[in-house]
């Protein structure tokens, strides 16, 4: 059990909102960063420097003939990718540290001794990017970007994908180490099929991985010493640097290529995992402190971008959504989904979606729907598809006869809990809240459950409970009609018009501040329209907007109101004229005084 001194304090409401705003700002900065890198991948000088890496036969494989079958085109593309990856892994050297997960510091003093790594990515402008393309050296992020530029240079339709690493707004995540020297490697070993060892400064396909050589699950911890090889005049590749790069075993940047045969975007990671056509192999585990998959954004060569996180996240609904701005963890004061759509609007392609976009949208939606059911109780909270009764809010109930789709146990010895579909969960409200929406409870309906909320208007006691009902148990409210020009009023002398449907038959709602005065001058019966309450503390103040009058008197009242408006405009014009005359009077008086002084 952590001591009180080391226990983290819960975040206040203000701190949560501040972290959300910082998260939003960081996401925008990262999007702009990836947009710039994607633009550099289209640079002609960069592509001309990289194009000679591939032989003509490889380029032919990467651009399969349309006469081939779908299977033939895909196999040709895979063969070309394999050859291109081998060449690029052989030539490119990882010498610097790339982008990594941003973490919060537990205490401001922890940032005083923090230092950036000495071998941090130095490619900050297009000149350095061109230099990296010539020398084939840099961070693995730059390597993924150059590989994207290489594929574009030989005519392959390629996207640049980045897993954004913004500061999290969700409490309870990993924090910044006390010192930059305390950075540790991820505990999980790299995938068995990985072609590159990110622990070393540079991957090499010619050298087998430690796991393959030693056959032990922990063999990757063994540091194979660098062996100097005799140089020849024909080998102009730069020497392997003696730099140890501590990075995640999963990429931050990778590429997506279009499989023309199947009209499908497929991922390609050339340097870190060496995987292609396997999207779920690119998601880092939850224990990885330096890499987290929250937003995977793919940029095309024309600058447009798309959120493709659902393609790579294995638990999008149960885990990944909680860390996103459009997820359930965002405070209610922030509309995260709307903000995220607005942030991506800059990168949205113009015009209607193409056939390829529609196919991809269906693919992403299907992948989200096929996500397996969570295995632990915590992941069911705010899940968009499944729900547990323990996670229902105070104003949520299950419909009668809700179908049970499974069970889950709270621990090894806990009882099994029934799992329901989220579509069987309904929002329930009290009688007064339904009335403010223009609905009343049907006769004979029994309440679904008793909420412990009190009502500041009705003064209900929370200890006694407040019965709540679902939408299906209500019907539209019909106010008493207007009879003989008399407006039906409540005991306070006004009429409730929370929604337009609450206006009584034979009446009309006139929204004007002086509508009551106009009706009084004409001798027409009227009632002030109550449209809501404003709460300060636990006291509610009624909000009125216009009056309700008989329909036959509406034309006369509007004519009087028009006269009021015309009279008010005339008075305002007269006041402006008087102010102008007063200004001229002061000006003339000033001129007279000036003339007397000079005379």
UniProtKB/TrEMBL annotation:
Claim: Repressor is one of the keywords in the record: no
Cellular compartments annotated: Nucleus
Region Disordered, residue ranges: 172-242
Residue ranges annotated for the Rad4 beta-hairpin domain, each copy included: 369-426, 428-480, 487-561
GO molecular function, one term: single-stranded DNA binding
InterPro entries: BHD_2, DNA_repair_Rad4, Papain-like_cys_pep_sf, Rad4/PNGase_transGLS-fold, Rad4_beta-hairpin_dom1, Rad4_beta-hairpin_dom3, Rad4_BHD3_sf, Transglutaminase-like_sf
Keywords: DNA damage, DNA repair, Nucleus
Bias (Low complexity) ranges: 193-212
Entry keyword Nucleus: yes
Pfam families: BHD_1 (PF10403), BHD_3 (PF10405), Rad4 (PF03835)
SUPFAM superfamilies documented for this protein: Cysteine proteinases
GO CC, one annotated term: cytoplasm
Similarity-based family: Belongs to the XPC family.
Protein name in the entry: Uncharacterized protein
Species for this entry: Cryphonectria parasitica (strain ATCC 38755 / EP155)
């Amino acid at each position: 059990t952590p001591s009180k001194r080391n226990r983290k304090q819960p975040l206040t409401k203000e701190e949560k909102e501040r972290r959300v705003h910082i998260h939003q700002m960081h996401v925008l900065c990262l999007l702009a960063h990836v947009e710039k890198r994607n633009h550099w991948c289209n640079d002609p000088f960069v592509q001309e420097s990289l194009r000679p890496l591939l032989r003509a036969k490889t380029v032919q494989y990467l651009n399969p003939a349309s006469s081939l079958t779908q299977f033939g085109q895909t196999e040709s593309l895979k063969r070309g990718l394999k050859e291109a990856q081998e060449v690029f892994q052989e030539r490119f050297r990882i010498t610097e540290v790339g982008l990594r997960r941003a973490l919060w510091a537990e205490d401001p003093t922890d940032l005083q001794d923090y230092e950036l790594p000495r071998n941090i990515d130095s490619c900050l402008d297009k000149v350095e990017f061109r230099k990296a393309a010539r020398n084939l050296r840099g961070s693995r992020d730059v390597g993924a970007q150059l590989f994207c530029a290489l594929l574009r240079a030989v005519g392959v339709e390629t996207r640049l994908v980045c897993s954004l690493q913004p500061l999290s707004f969700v409490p309870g995540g990993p924090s910044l180490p006390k010192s930059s020297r305390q950075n540790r490697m991820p505990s999980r070993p790299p995938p068995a099929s990985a072609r590159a060892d990110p622990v070393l400064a540079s991957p090499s396909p010619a050298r087998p991985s430690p796991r393959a050589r030693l056959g032990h699950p922990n063999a990757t911890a063994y540091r194979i010493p660098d062996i100097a090889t005799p140089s020849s005049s024909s080998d102009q590749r730069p020497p392997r640097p003696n730099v140890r790069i501590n990075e995640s075993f999963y990429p931050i940047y990778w590429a997506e290529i279009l499989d023309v045969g199947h009209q499908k975007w497929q991922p390609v990671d050339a340097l870190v995992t060496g995987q292609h056509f396997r999207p779920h192999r690119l998601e880092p585990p939850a224990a990885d402190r330096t890499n987290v998959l929250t937003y995977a954004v793919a940029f095309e060569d024309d600058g447009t971008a798309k959120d493709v996180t659902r393609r790579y996240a294995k638990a999008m609904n149960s885990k990944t959504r909680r860390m996103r701005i459009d997820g359930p963890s965002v405070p209610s004061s922030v509309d995260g989904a709307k903000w995220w759509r607005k942030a991506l609007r800059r990168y949205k392609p113009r015009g209607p979606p193409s056939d390829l976009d529609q196919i991809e949208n269906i693919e992403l939606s299907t992948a989200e729907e096929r996500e397996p059911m969570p295995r632990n109780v915590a992941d069911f909270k705010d899940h968009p598809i499944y729900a547990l009764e323990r996670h229902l809010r105070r104003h949520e109930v299950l419909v009668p006869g809700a179908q049970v789709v499974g069970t889950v146990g709270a621990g090894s010895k806990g009882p099994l809990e029934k799992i329901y579909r989220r579509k069987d969960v309904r929002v329930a409200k009290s009688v007064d809240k339904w009335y403010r929406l223009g609905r009343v409870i049907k006769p004979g309906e029994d309440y679904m459950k008793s909420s412990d909320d009190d009502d500041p208007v009705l003064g209900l006691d929370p200890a006694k409970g407040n019965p709540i009902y679902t939408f299906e148990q209500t019907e539209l409210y019909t106010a008493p009609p207007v009879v003989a020009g008399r407006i039906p009023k409540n005991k306070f002398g006004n009429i409730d018009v929370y929604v337009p449907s609450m206006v009584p038959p034979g009446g009309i709602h006139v929204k004007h501040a002086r509508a009551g005065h106009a009706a009084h001058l004409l001798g027409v019966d009227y009632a002030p329209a109550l449209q809501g309450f404003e709460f300060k503390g636990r006291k509610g103040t009624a909000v009125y907007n216009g009056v309700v009058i008989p329909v036959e008197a509406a034309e006369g009242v509007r004519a009087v109101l028009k006269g009021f408006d015309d009279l008010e405009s005339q008075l305002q014009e007269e006041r402006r004229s008087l102010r102008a005359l007063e200004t001229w009077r002061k000006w003339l008086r000033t001129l007279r005084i000036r003339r007397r002084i000079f005379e």
